[in-house]
């Protein structure tokens, strides 16, 4: 068995998850889980069995003896009784640890959650530790791979992200031969299933492939955990946990030879990871030929290497530092590079990158590969300086002017001051040139000063002959002073540059962290800041999709031109299956290190964003459940009254013992008809509400007059005699759907009659600016201003205590808005409520704006 700890700290009261992962059924996952449960019980831990499947295996069943087993929840489905994990019982029992077998299981319809891993998620959220099991074929990312290997598609899967959340993942592993023997002895399946299993799913080749998948998946998780630990602890030295070979490529003619040699080294090292890195000089000198990067990337893909590009500071030492920084960052164990193309004469002045890498590599083994181009090039050594370019230019000017000025001053003061004073002036000129320009201008100033001092001011005059020995000491001292001061200046400039970079990096990280912490949706802004800070054309966060879906862009800033990490010029692996990529230019090694930190912040932002989305989805589900419960309660209330009236009236009409007159029978029939109308109106409102929610109402707009619509709405409306109609015939027409507007008016009139305390209801029409308004005015109790918005909320009624559907006004507002109008409520002068329907006048709509379609009733 092999276990990997993910190093995840418990937050609050969240429980810890431990998963036993196997390559196939029968390897002993449940057996190992039960063994751990018994060990914890012996240590005094409160352990219960939520659900464990023994599959008739006697040795597994023996381990259950003595453990507390919670009863399962029974679900009746199609005449069959299914048993599932009882989550409510687990939460009520609240043990320290609960055992939940078969993490990828799909629950029976009607269960608390669709998947068992969702049950486990809720249990963990309650602060209960969970031990569980899963097979590698049930991992979502490997589902299609397993299908191609075994020919069987697994219908039950669990997201990789949930499995990776586990604090411990323990691999339960046995050899394919041992598993087949266990299967043949009847220790896995019943005897009648053994032959079919051995001939199909449990073939040796299938088991070998599944075992390799499980080992590689766990190994990747171990590697991610190790990289996270090294990053958190700021460990830079190499840990030889896995062979990683880094090959340095220049883009020159020797690159193919060096890369192929590195591939052979990696293969002999036991299929080690091979990373090809192309280091570019920051000064742009001696760059690779045009198209070399694309050719090297293709060749790296052919030999199975990942390709990376980093930019080093100018000079050989800068390239060396960047190369070693990259190698240590990826925890490389071996480094392969070609021997220098520079000649032996050039190497006398500068040993070259290879020699520097060997001296500074530390614990990383370095391979120097010879090639045909070795020693064929002659290059002059470069003097590298950290002094800014502007100061260097000024230094080159001063290295000439300062000695000339010192010479002129010495000649002018000849006879007044001695040679010692002249020497001090030339020392001052050399120091000034060194302080301003660095090493190069200092050396020129020193040499020029020595020559001018010797020629113009040192006897014999106007001759380069040195007459006294102490003058030689003076000249040598000037050269040494120039070099030493220049080195001090250069080191100070380097420290200043490093301090400035550190301040910039700290400010950038603080800005990135502030974005992640303060924004509701931080990813787009974070990537935009990264693109601006690093001067990239495009920055994207890519996530590997499930199965054959490839890579998906989670977020992007700039043109969406990078869809795979292989196509990017900057590629930072945030975690397995999640990469931060960029295009536009390659980055120096120190910028890549900063980008890795940003990648961690992007991961935090992504998880926060998804957690917020899950919370919103959960809230919506809760609201939907609340709405559904309210609907059932409300419909039950509104149905009960008319149904009771219909049943009572129909029962009276059918009772032969009741002496009923014709008037009584007519009244009972009218009661039945009225109650049926109420039921019809309720059903119509429910249907309209569902259509509005689904966006399925398409109005057929045409010119209409309020007067004719109100007249049709009054037909058959109980209490219509209490309505005072005041709608002028000459009002402008509105653009509306006749059927929908009639439904709106009918609902408003019915609402006013019901809540108007028996008083008359006025209906008035008026035109205002580009709108035509219809007002339904009642003299009832009115509605307080703060509660008016609730009038148009489904399942709300004025004065109710949660009873009745209250859909009339909600449907009326929805239908009005579909037609392009508004429905509002306001106070009636003297008391009461006025509901206003406002629709655009027909003159404002062109003939082409009428939406085609049919009225939905």
UniProtKB/TrEMBL annotation:
The keyword Transmembrane applies. It catalyses: ATP + protein L-histidine = ADP + protein N-phospho-L-histidine. Its EC number is 2.7.13.3. CDD domains: HisKA (cd00082). SUPFAM superfamilies: Adenine nucleotide alpha hydrolases-like, ATPase domain of HSP90 chaperone/DNA topoisomerase II/histidine kinase, Homodimeric domain of signal transducing histidine kinase. Residues 634-843 form the Histidine kinase domain. This is histidine kinase.
